[in-house]
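Hey,
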Amino acid sequence: MNGEAVKSFVVGAAGWVRDALPLIVCALALAGASAAGLSGCGAGDPGRQAVQPARSKPSSPLRLFAKPVPRFPVHGYTTHGMYPVAYVKGRPIASVNRRMRALIVRLMDSLAPGTRKAVRASVRGGGPGGSGGSFNFISLDERISASTREISLLKAFVECLPGGTECYDWFSATLRVPSGRLVRLPWLFSPAARRAALRTAERVVRKDVLSTSACARQSAHDPDNGAYYRRQLAPANWRGYRHFALTTRGLVIAFRPGDIGYDSCGMFLTPTVPYRLLEPYLSRLGRVMVDGVRRPVWSRP
C-alpha cells in the first residue's frame, strides 16, 4: 500500500470512528440500562426524553351528577342524600364511581354495628328503638373538586343514634382519575418534607381554631385531656388530618367532634390552606393532583 493510500485509509477510519463513537457509547449505555426500558439515541429520541419528568396532560373539569346513596343497613332507619358520579365525554368513569360508592358503603358498614347496639339498648330501656332513625348524606357543608386527574370530596353527614345523639361527622375521599385509586394526605408531599408540610398546615389550622373557638381553647388547656387534643394537631399526627379535600382555593381540613376539642365543641372545618404555602413540599403526585384541581360541572348524564 503506497503512502497516499495509507493516508486515505487512516483519514477515512478516523472519520468513521468519530461518527460511530456516540452511537457505540449510547448502545453500551442502553444495554446497561435495559431494565429501565430505555431505547434509542439522539437529542430528539424518545428514549432520552423518557428519563425526563413526564409532563401531565392539561386537566379539564369532570361532569358530575348526583346519585342516591345506598341504603343504610339498619332496620327502621331511613336514608337520604346523594353522592357524585363522574362522567367524561358522556361515559361514566367506572373505576372512580365504584370506588366512591364502595367508600360510602364502608362508612355505613362501620357505623351500623354501633347503631344496632344503641337501638337494642333503646328498646330495652323503653325507647323508640330504630323508628325515626336516619342516615342523611346531605350537603350540610361540602367541598368538592373534580377533573380528568382527580376527584376530591369532603362532606358533612348526619347519622343519629336513638335519642338524637352523636349525629354529625365527616366523609372524605380523594381519588385519582381515571384509576379510582385512593390518595391519602401524606402522599401529596415528598417523604423528607412531610413533617414541614403538616407543620405549615398546622399553623393555619391552630391559629384559626384557637382564635375563633372558646370551646377549643378551653379543651386545649383541660388538665386531663388537653394533651390529647393538642397532639391531634401535632405535625407528627397524620391521622388527625385524615379528612381533607383539594379545592380550587387550596387544601381544606376537617375535624370530627372530639378530635381537637370536647365533643360539645362540634365539628371543625378549617380555613383554606393556600397551595402556595404547600408548593415547596409537594411530591410529584401532589403536583399532578394540585395542578389538576378544577371546579366540576354538575349536570344530568
